[in-house]
Amino acid sequence: MDKKGYVMVFLPIIFIVLFGFIGLAIDLSIVVYNKQHLQDVVDFAAISSIQEATKNKSQVIRTSREYLNKNGINDIDIVKIIYPYDGDDYKIKISASRKVKLTFLSILGFKETTVLVNSIAKLNRDLRYAIFQNSNDVLYINTAIRVEGNIHSNGDINLQSRDIIVNGIVEGVGKINSRTTNVSQFIENCPYIKMPYYNIQDYRNKATIYYNNSITIDNKLTLNQDQIIFVNGDITVKAKTEGRGKIIATGNITFTGNDIIYGTDKDEIMFMAGRNIWFSGTKSQYSGIFYTYSGEINFSCSNSSVYGRLYANKIKLIGGNNQIYPYNMEISDTWSTSLVE
Q1: Is 114 exposed, middle or buried (0-12, 13-18, 19+ CB in 10 A)?
Q2: Which residues form the Putative Flp pilus-assembly TadG-like N-terminal domain (predicted)?
Q3: pTM beyond 0.70
């Protein structure tokens, strides 16, 4: 057989193989496209519907089905929705499968294949902690304190007093060294959590009361209807503050005095400092969220209570026989969603 004969024999084989690869590529692209589309729709439905959990948990499943139907999930697709998922009211799992018709492979008897996707979405409320330290410095506690909530540090944690009681989780991005066993749960090497950043200057123009110098609050102060008091300087607090709103200082905020009820668990005030927040005194009661993004919270009181939360770049707890009771007021009014799977 001459060379032309070989060419005539192998040329059809080459074309068959070539068309085979093209056909496989087409079928593969069809499968990949359908799976990706299905995954996108399921992810979107999970992320969108779980946000209903903050308003009406009974609407979560209904909302997820609405999103699925509006975005291409039809009656022939098999969908399974699990809510609550894993016993968590703020978590949902959606599974979906779809039969995809094949082109080239149907010649070989493979007429269709099934693609399956899963999506788990969860709802996170920002900063659900009684004590939150943003820096990677060691969170060091060597004093008698009772915390009815969770503690987080983006570094190591050192609990050196046997008189520390935490009815909650103590979690650190680093290691935890503890002399007390009166803790509900320890979690080491936990994920890093970034503390939300609030630019204090953004509240300057929103303030209902503005001071261009440092002030002292030495008489009872009541905030109504989410008032904002903005101080371009330091604030010294010597009297009760009550109501709902924000008290902001570009400098330091200092609480000083003994046997003072600065607030109750009914008040919802957020104290924001551009620098540091200092507590001193005995037998006092503080209420609110105390926040400084770049500064330090120094709590050197004794026999005192906090109804609220402490959030700072660094936290020092120096006094003894104190209690922290976090309540429902959150540092952020927003919720964030994320995909777990």
Answers
A1: exposed
A2: 5-47
A3: no
